[in-house]
TrEMBL record:
ApeA N-terminal domain boundaries: 13-299
High-level lineage: Bacteria, Pseudomonadati, Pseudomonadota, Betaproteobacteria, Neisseriales
Protein name, per record: ApeA N-terminal domain-containing protein
Membrane-crossing residue ranges in chain numbering: none
UniProt organism field: Iodobacter violaceini
InterPro entries registered for this protein in UniProt: ApeA_NTD, HEPN_Apea
Residue ranges constituting the Apea-like HEPN domain according to the UniProt record: 330-464
Chain coiled-coil ranges: none
Amino acid sequence: MSKKNTGKQSKRFLGSFTLKDGRAVTGELQLKGASTLLKLHSDQPLDSLTGSDKHIEGMAYSGEYLTLIDCLCSSTGHFFWKNEASNYHADIFPHYVAIGRTHLIANQANIKTIEFTTTDLSTIFYDFDAFGKVIDAKSIIDIVLKDIRTHRPVESGDMPIVSYFTGKTCIAEISTMIGKISVRHRPSYSMGGPSGFNIKNSMLISIEPENPITFDEAIIKMNDIASFLSILAGRAQGINDIQVFTIEATKEYPQAVSIYPSYRWKCSDKNAVDKPNPRDVPLNAITHPAEFSNVLTHWISRQSTWRLARSRSLNCLREGNKYGPDRLVAAANMFDILPIDATPTSNELSSEIVEARDQCKKIFRAIPDGVDRSSVLGALGRLGKPSLPKKVAHRVDIVHSKLGCHFQNLDEVAAIAVKCRNYFVHGSKEIEFDKIEHLLPFLTDALEFIFTASDLIESGWETQIWSNGQHGMRHTFGRFKVEYGSSSSELLSLTQKLD
């Protein structure tokens, strides 16, 4: 039997499971976030499970097909009673569990669609007019009741109410290099009656690659899209309601396989006060679909080379309102791992410098290996290549080209932020950090804004609508814009006094 618990994503299944060696054993699967666990029981030893059985298939007694993906065996053991046979047990931790009407073959390219929801999908795609209520329904109530009145008399009164859904389920549909990305309404409603009537809606986003892909590839694509949506929302998105559709399913009878990750993406700031306002979102997919499509398409096109740096940016976003030296260092270091085409070109060294560099390398390579020797050789190898300050300044120029009027002296603010990073990493004395320590959150926000805004601008963000709008404090972009004037003035005033 299966049993649903009150906790979100909390389920329990009892059933039979097949191991790699063909043995069938009984087990209990408990789904509850990171504590997901499969407890196996057998009358034969299960020690061989350690380090094996990456994927385990099972059948719940209630009929569900269970596929446990990327499994780890955490412990094995046995117990026995006097004069009775031994009972062996093992605890298996799966990174993903797939539940449906069929098993999921994780290592085969058989997934044609993956769909999911994220925390702020309805804010990012703020399709305000899709649902509504007719304020004065007197002129249309007779039309609404026309068909019903052919079966029975229905009287209308002085205050009729008509609610509606336009019926347009597709909000956006964009072709990208990873496939067709669609965002859709998924309304549910009651049939009405004496207790009333309601329409509830949820949104889902789907990725449909040109050709079927493996499970791992589908998860990577989903995470990439969730990263992009996190930027637009101004906070890390939670991912829920994951389903995949395989090539075995027909269009007439699609069979969804529900996916339960042990480590779900969770929203970074769950408080209602941190929920973004639609007007603060940098891109509007409803009123300016062409710009949104253009940015998403270009953003995805370079994700393979930007993924590492963007993942560091997302980690910073996950910190929410928590600031400290580690976050500032991480925010600065993500500029260092940008791909080469996102940084300034290397300087061409003069022949004299090249000759001096080569001679120095020869001298130091003759010295026994050591920390100082490696440090000098590393510095010599970086001659002419863009340094961190130059990389950050290059990204500042991109932001300044579109938003310079709102962020004057951003280059100076960024330079100070890098000096603070050097203070934490190298103990550099370029700046008296204790005098500006209270501005650490602002300096961190500056680096994160420069990184993300320059990325969106290069991807096609036009910025005019956002930059001319009025913004609140519920989005990282809007908060930085509101606070920039006073914080930057205080920072530059303090640093000038120190000079």
